[in-house]
Amino acid sequence: MKKEDLSFPLTAEAYIAYQEAGAGCEFDKNMREAIEAWLPVFNNSYEEGKCGDRQALFDSIKSLDEFISRSKDEPILHDFLSVCKMWVCYAWTRGNDDARKAVGT
Q: ∠ CA(79), CA(36), CA(92), 5° rounding?
């Protein structure tokens, strides 16, 4: 499955299955809970993209960059937050693309 095949709003089941397939293993309960906790952030970013709210994206990136920089001594957290940043950006772009397609531009 490609990330383009995922539908928004993301569901825990679909997103976790996608991540597990990419990792080649099943996640434990703690990892699933951590991933699930971020879904509202990704889904919100998608909605902000549909509205074309670039400032919301910039604010999210700035906040995530601060968290990422503070986690540099914790590689697992650092990598996890870096992936979350990528998904925030992807969700915003996907929402913006979907909105433009809906109006035919």
A: 70
Closest CA to 3 of 99, 101, 94: 94
Q: What's the first-to-final CA gap in the chain, in angstroms?
A: 27
pLDDT tens for 12-58 read: 999 999 999 999 999 999 999 999 999 999 999 999 999 999 999 99
The phi, psi pair for 7, rounded to 5°, reads -100, 145
DSSP 23-69: HTSPPPHHHHHHHHHHHHHHHHHHHHHHHT-HHHHHHHHHHHHHHHH
Helix, strand, coil shares of the chain, percent, nearest 5, are 80, 0, 20
On whether the pTM is more than 0.90, the answer is: yes
